[in-house]
Hints:
The protein is of the alpha+beta class. The protein folds into two domains: about 5-140, Fructose-1,6-Bisphosphatase, subunit A, domain 1 (Fructose-1,6-Bisphosphatase, Chain A, domain 1, 2-Layer Sandwich); about 150-200, D-Maltodextrin-Binding Protein, domain 2. It has helices at about 5-20, 45-60, 90-95, 165-180, 190-195; strands spanning about 30, 40, 65, 70-75, 80-85, 100-105, 110-120, 125-130, 130-135, 140, 155-160, 180-185, 200. A hairpin with a 2-residue loop joins strand 8 and strand 9 (about 130-135). The longest helix is centred in the first third of the chain and has 20 residues, at about 5-20. It is globular. The model has no long low-confidence stretch (mean pLDDT about 95).
Amino acid sequence: MTEHERFIVELANAAAAVTLPFFRSDIGHEDKGGKAGFDPVTEADKQAEAAIRRLIAERYPHHGVIGEEYGEDRPDAEFVWVLDPIDGTRAFISGLPLWTTLIALRVEDRPNVGVIAQPYLDEIFIGGPSGARLIRSEGETPLAVRACAKLTDAVISTTDPNIFNGAELGAWTQVRAAARLARLGCDAYAYAMVTAGRMDLVAETSLKTW
């Protein structure tokens, strides 16, 4: 693995050390509200992002960071880390292991390496210069998308059909009707399943940088 690939796994493990003790506990949450309606944030979100930021600042003090909980720091730097400490906070507070930690590195505004980590399931999906693989405690396995040439054979996903408006909802309805199987509520874990060849397509809208 490259230096940055090794470091991003270190960051994912540091986040896991924070999030796992909170998962399936009596953790409270705040509602950030806004246009998204109920938009919860927990102490686990905040502490995990803070832990990741500390490690980045120690190792690469001149790198930029963009994170969901604490905003931007040098977003125009050559190297910028993009963080979502808990994607799927609704799943997190519901005790469902569909939440993930998302970390990526942009180099000159282009993706270089990224991880989708689900520590409760002991899974780190990583993609970067060394290829794509699933890292677990017992070892690593290569990742590859499934060969799926027809929508009628596809397993598809979206977080919630209610995120779509107008023409988007109409398009989703047509795609869902044509697909073999649709699963809802998986958040970014659905993207991990695409990399593992378990799903074929994820439909979303209005995505944030992280």
